[in-house]
Amino acid sequence: MYRCGLLTPEKEPVPLKSIEVELQVRDHVATVVSTLSYDNKEDKPIEAVFVFPLPGDAAVCHFSATVGQTQIVAEVKEKQQAREEYDDALSSGQQAFLLEESDQSPDIFSLSVGSLPPGESASIRLEYVTELAVQADDGLRFCLPAVLNPRYQPRGSGGPSVEVTSVPASQVPYTLSFSARLSSPRPISKVESSSSLDPLQFLNAEQTQATVKLAAGHKFDRDVELLVYYKDAHQPSAVVEAGQASAEPGSLMGDPVVMVSLYPDFPQTVMSSVTSCGEFVFVLDRSGSMDCAVNNTNPEQTRIANARDTLLLLLKSLPMGCYFNIYGFGSTFEHIFPESVEYSEKTMEEALKKVEGMKADLGGTEILQPLKHIYNQPCVPNQPRQLFVFTDGEVWNNKEILHLVKENASSHRCFSFGIGEGASSALINGMAKEGGGHAQFITGADRMQTKVLQSLRFALQPAVVDISVTWDLPKGVSATVLSPPITAIFHGQRSLVYAQLTGQSSEAAEGCVTVKYSLAGHPSQSRVKFSLKAVDTGLTVHRLGARSLIRSLEMQEEENGEKPEEVKKRVVELSVQSGVSSAYTAFVAVNKGNNETIQGPLVRRNVKTPGMMMMTCSMPMPMMMCKYTSSRRAPVRGKPLSLVTPVTGQDTFF
Description:
It is a single chain. The protein is of the alpha+beta class. Among the domains are: 186 residues, 3-Layer(aba) Sandwich (Rossmann fold), CATH 3.40.50.410; 71 residues, no CATH class. The strands form seven sheets. Strands 5-4-9-2-1-13-16-15 form an eight-stranded mixed beta sheet. Strands 20, 21, 22, 23, 24, 25 and 26 form a seven-stranded mixed beta sheet that branches. A hairpin with a 5-residue loop joins strand 10 and strand 11. InterPro entries: VIT, VWF_A, vWFA_dom_sf. Pfam families: VIT, VWA_3.
């Protein structure tokens, strides 16, 4: 017998019908609007729960629901308060909607659509803004994460986790449509993608505006990666965005906010004297999940093979006379040499042979212990330590890892590589940011060599020190910096500074920001002049600035003498004021306009998320449907679900 409609592999109805994504790129900033359509075909009210990935540095700034002719706009509230309002609404038979960021990882969100009556439809609108990273070939990278890989939680670790139900991408029973509109002061050269695109359509003769969309027949089996290229090289710039008219002057949302983009250009004389020394410590993820496919385009290419190829290329490119060592980790870790050794033909050949034989056979993804071991080893004198980490990012203790990297930032630089689609952007970008290095994402053989050699070039560049930022503003105008201090500067790579501008000035007034630093003993500086005339760009810059400050505060914890409760209070106040999500807040909306109480028992439906788990992993079927328990409330309250069939030598998810 055949059953029609949206069904899970277990033949349960799925209420999520489609996802429509509209992307707007303005120079190097992206605004993303996603519309999720739900349709309850069952004969009873349901609660649909959808756990999905977003870029780790995204500022989620709008969440609303439309039911029939009624639109309900969600408010940002303290997370526990939002959860209680949602639960109370469901208990009283009202419709409610909840969007919350994971406590442990800012690149995972949970969307709950509660008390959707039989035969009812609901449309969810989600909006976020994010910065686009500059690639090795000067392209700007946007990634719409479609794949959510389950995150490994080490045995015995505490803390709540999020319930994730993943299925093979080919079995995801809802559709995705994607379109993009691009605009820039400079002509657009081309747009490339990992997915098939319709031809680029220019909207003006100057080719500064264009549209593009996914080609028909796109399968929801991979991240949607877009690379945007402009004809002119990236140039330093600054944008002053007008504040919100309804907000109080002197507040973050009421004052103008400036976003300064710097692209340091080091003197050729300094770059030609690039160091050939260094202690290079390579850390390779050998957990069971690394046996999965890198992507669906080439399912035979595994993550471990991709990581091996990346590491082999780096090993062959190191300068003679430096020092190096290689670690492999899973549930345990091991290293090739007892301590870092000098790089020579002999040690290189020995390392190459061992790397070529490395497999994904060390169990779960536990990176904390090898990192602690490495940081406890004395550095080689006069050889700056450069840490290279290769992982698929399937870990749940992101905050612990990032705090450890940050605590040891003075003794090394960290260069991270996300291997395969679904790699945690929060972990990969976070390690590089806290470790003063650079992040790359390797999702196939394309551009791998360019990315690898760029990271090596950055690692061989002497560390930039004595970094300071000064503001030259008219009398009566002051700047409050929202972004964390700049800790790393690389040749040609963008550095962003956000600041709140308080005070009055004439529209013709100008400001200037100067970043001073020292490179290999040579004092240098980058300067950007800008007009203080504020423009209305929809509060995009304000939200990115707020997100930057929120992230910095979340990382502080007990730093600077502040207690966690004080930091949390500041984050909640900032999040509510700016309307930007955080680890301590959530969006909640309750449909109070409908006085009819929804009758009948509420049935929970977990909407399946595409995952890479079914590709070439040597894991049994029960693992593909692994779940994480939400600490918020039943129906899965209590002890997390364990696997039906544990597998030796593979990741174990709890």
